[in-house]
Design a protein that fits this description.
Elements (H helix, E strand, L loop, with lengths): L1 H6 L13 E3 L5 E3 L3 E3 L2 E8 L5 E5 L14 H12 L1 H4 L8 H4 L10 E4 L5 E4 L6 H15 L4 H12 L14
Antiparallel strand pairs: 1-2, 2-4, 3-4, 4-5, 5-7, 6-7
């Protein structure tokens, strides 16, 4: 499966050393836009109260620096999330992140939001969770096979319904 997914995905940027600055009013830790590497600027990093790190980059083509040193499978999962975000918004996650991190779908394990200017707020939750990674990779594979969003959703629900945490409160696709 990784080879199929890999063929459809773009590469991100290389290594970096993030610099952290102070603590925000809401208890999160944030850094200023301080680094450039491989021609990309990583604009902001925030640590949430639940322990997740979120990093803003200029676009979906610029992967976050927290992926430096991660396995190929994890990097592929983030690339997959970037290219299938419209589908992932309909796919629940079964790792328990709905309750622990307030996620609404599997997409939120990787991407918190895409801003109007095209910048992306990435979430590092997926770097620590095989359920999240496997869900996005299964979604991409099924999408490449021509499955509909409803078919993908049904297959994911069937695969994770028993023995996993309560799913995120993701609405069913129409």
């Amino acid at each position: 499966m990784t080879g199929v997914v890999c063929a459809a995905l773009l590469s991100g940027c290389g290594s970096s050393d993030s610099k952290h600055a102070g603590e925000a009013v809401d208890g999160t830790k944030a850094s200023q836009p301080t680094e450039t590497h491989a021609g990309h600027v990583h604009t902001e990093t925030t640590q949430l109260a639940n322990g997740d790190v979120q990093e803003t980059t200029a676009s979906l083509d610029v992967l976050p620096s927290f992926l430096d040193g991660q396995s190929e499978k994890v990097v592929l999962a983030y690339q997959a999330a970037a290219i299938t975000r419209d589908t992932l918004a309909w796919i629940p996650c079964y790792c328990g992140c709905g309750g622990s991190a307030g996620h609404e779908s599997n997409l939120n394990c990787f991407i918190a939001e895409v801003n109007e200017d095209g910048s992306v707020v990435w979430d590092d939750h997926g770097t620590r969770c095989d359920v999240c990674v496997n869900t996005v990779l299964q979604t991409v594979q099924m999408k490449q096979e021509g499955k509909s969003v409803k078919e993908i959703r049904t297959a994911i629900d069937d695969a994770y319904r028993v023995g996993y945490a309560k799913p995120t409160a993701t609405p069913m696709p129409a």
